[in-house]
């Protein structure tokens, strides 16, 4: 495939095989977008920076963490970012994509059929508040992440019940202030979790500030969390 119109910043993060897969993914999402509105971030820098680069930079920026060969969960996966992006760059990992929108999970299933992913990928149409209380999923993931879903306190309530004892939560955030830190630390205390690390970058091509926060369990999250559907969003801990 031609490499024209791909921002040069992308080439420092991923190899040629991965670039080809991201180009193929872009084409397939664009085709699906003609039938059902999945995302507006599909052309030029909107796709390559706001979707691809933003999804994968956290997994390239902590050299002391091994992200390969993991059981990976993406909560609120939408049209596949960061879940399918992580799948492309970490082909040995098993991927679970959860979204409450059937339109989006149907689209994800089509994308997975049409693109030659090496991963074992599962797509689940449900709410995380329900999935988290099923014994086959709870406390079973090495990595769980959310992007563009909600505030850090709310998504921590979604993520921590899903992680095993050595698991890692990856939270994508825009701007970050002391108030957010205080709220998150309070929430983590309730959920038996702890703050691990934070990194901040300016996305290329003036696409804004991005923070990524890593959290991990201290102990298994109390059984009552996450609360019933809608509660974590309406009333963050």
Annotation keywords:
single chain, 237 residues, alpha/beta, Rossmann fold, seven-stranded mixed β-sheet, 9 helices, 22% strand
Report the sheet with the most strands, covering strand number, pairing sense and barrel closure.
Answer: 7 strands, mixed
Low-confidence sequence ranges: none
Helix content: 25-40%
* CATH topology-level fold name: Rossmann fold
State the CATH superfamily name. Answer: Vaccinia Virus protein VP39
The top level CATH class name = Alpha Beta
* C-alpha-based Rg, rounded: 17 Å
Q: Figure out the total of helices.
A: 9
Q: Can you tell me the number of structural domains?
A: 1
- Going by helix content, strand content and strand pairing, the class is alpha/beta
What is the N-to-C order of secondary-structure elements (H for helix, E for strand)?
HHHEHEHEHEHEHEEH
Strand content: 15-25%
How confident overall, as mean pLDDT?
93
* Annotation, overall tally of beta strands: 7
How far from one another are the termini?
48 Å
> Strand order across the biggest sheet?
3-2-1-4-5-7-6
Report the CATH architecture: 3-Layer(aba) Sandwich
The general outline is: globular
